[in-house]
Each structure stands twice: as structure tokens, then as C-alpha cells.
Amino acid sequence: MTRLVILGKQGAGKGTQCALLAKHYHIPHISTGDMLRTTVAEGTHLGLQAKAIMEAGELVSDEIILGIVHERLTQADAQLGFLLDGFPRTDAQAQGLMAMLAPNKIDVALDIDVPDDVVTERMLARGRDDDTPEAMQRRLELYQTETAPLLELFSKGGFLVSVDGLGTELEVHGRVIDAIERNRSL
Ligand code: AMP
């Protein structure tokens, strides 16, 4: 049973590391960003609302996010573990997650640490539709004000593991697995 939360800024390499981790631990990769992009593609009312928020680099409301995560975590494949990518991003989401899981807990909250100038360069190279300079800047600001404080929260709970995100995908992957296994056996 492995329950993981992946933190880290946009462009920290979360997507790539999550794909490798999901394979390694045989757990579903649950990305709120991917789920939102699917909703946007479906063109529902919720999708249209989410699209505007995502394009501006703002955060979709905690209520909506907690609703979609709750629904996803009740599905059969998530009963033996999961990897949460891009969630939680706010204190309310973190509290909501813990309440959803109780009496169980996560095993590890992994922070992939990459400096702002490097993530900005990577984001420019990735060229996703919602990667306008304004949206990128806004996402970094929101990471600092809303998401970075979660590092302390998870650290207090003994769940936090920080890994240097610079280097090749496989170098970072090796560090990530070592760090998760070390923290788990504590
Ligand atoms: P991502 O693919 O994780 O970079 O997410 C893309 C966009 O979806 C973000 O910039 C937000 O607008 C929205 N989003 C994804 N996950 C969340 C979340 N946990 N809380 C609020 N908004 C989110």
C-alpha cells in the first residue's frame, strides 16, 4: 500500500516523475490538472468555468477540487494506494484530504525542489496552451502563498521528503525512490 502526494512548482518535473512512480509502485496517477483538462475538453458548464480559471493561472475552487478528488479516490483502483499530483494546493485541500483518508494517512508527501528560474525556462519550452507569461507568473505566486506553506504542514506530520529536482529524469527518479523508501522505514 503506497499513498503518495507530490508537491512542487509548475515545471518541477512532477508529471514525468509521477509517471515513473506510478509504474514503480503499481498505483494510479491521479492528476487534478489532467482531470480538469478532461472536463474542459468535454465542454460542460463546469469545464467552461475551469478553462477560464486555468488560462489565467488561478486556482479552481477548493470545493470543486475536493469533489473531484473524493470521487476519484472512491474508485476501486485507488483502494490499494495512489499518487496525487497537483493536489493538495491549498490548506483547505490538505485538510480535506486528511479528513477523506481518516483513519488512514498518506505515506509520503514528496517535494521536488527546483529554483524559479529553471522552472520558468522549462515552462517556456513546454509551450502548453495555458502557459502564457502572465499565467506562469501567477502560478508561481500562488505556489508561494498557497502551496509552499503545506510543506511545513506535512513536515510537522513527519510526511515530508524533499528531493533535488535538478538532473536527468532517471537521476531524479533514483533520488525520489531512495527518499520515499528511507522515509517509509523510519
Ligand atoms: P497542473 O496541470 O497541475 O499544472 O494544473 C493546471 C491548472 O489546473 C492549474 O494552473 C490550476 O488552474 C488548475 N488546478 C489543478 N490542480 C488544482 C488544484 N489542486 N487546486 C486548484 N486548481 C488546480
What can you see in these coordinates?
This protein has 186 residues and is an alpha/beta fold. It has helices at residues 14-25, 32-42, 45-55, 62-73, 91-101, 116-126, 133-147, 149-156, 169-184, and strands spanning 2-7, 29-31, 81-85, 108-113, 160-164. Strands 2-3-1-4-5 form a five-stranded parallel β-sheet, with helices on both faces. It is globular and about 45 Å long. The protein starts with a strand and ends with a helix. The model has no long low-confidence stretch (mean pLDDT 93). It binds adenosine monophosphate (AMP). Adenosine monophosphate is lined by residues 10, 32-33, 36, 53-54, 57-60, 65, 86-87, 89, 93, 139.
- Element order: H for helix, E for strand: EHEHHHEHEHHHEH
Number of strands: 5
- Can you give the mean pLDDT? 93
Could you give the distance between the termini?
16 Å
Q: State which percent range the strand residues make up.
A: 5-15%
Largest β-sheet summary? 5 strands, parallel
Low-confidence stretches: none
- Look at the helices and sheets and give the structural class: alpha/beta
The hetero molecules present are: adenosine monophosphate
Key terms for this structure?
binds adenosine monophosphate; about 190 residues; alpha/beta; about 15% strand; five-stranded parallel sheet; globular
Can you lay out the helices and strands and say which pair or pack?
Layout: E1 2-7, H1 14-25, E2 29-31, H2 32-42, H3 45-55, H4 62-73, E3 81-85, H5 91-101, E4 108-113, H6 116-126, H7 133-147, H8 149-156, E5 160-164, H9 169-184
Parallel strand pairs: 1-3, 1-4, 2-3, 4-5
Helix pairs in contact: 1-9, 2-3, 4-5
The structure holds adenosine monophosphate.
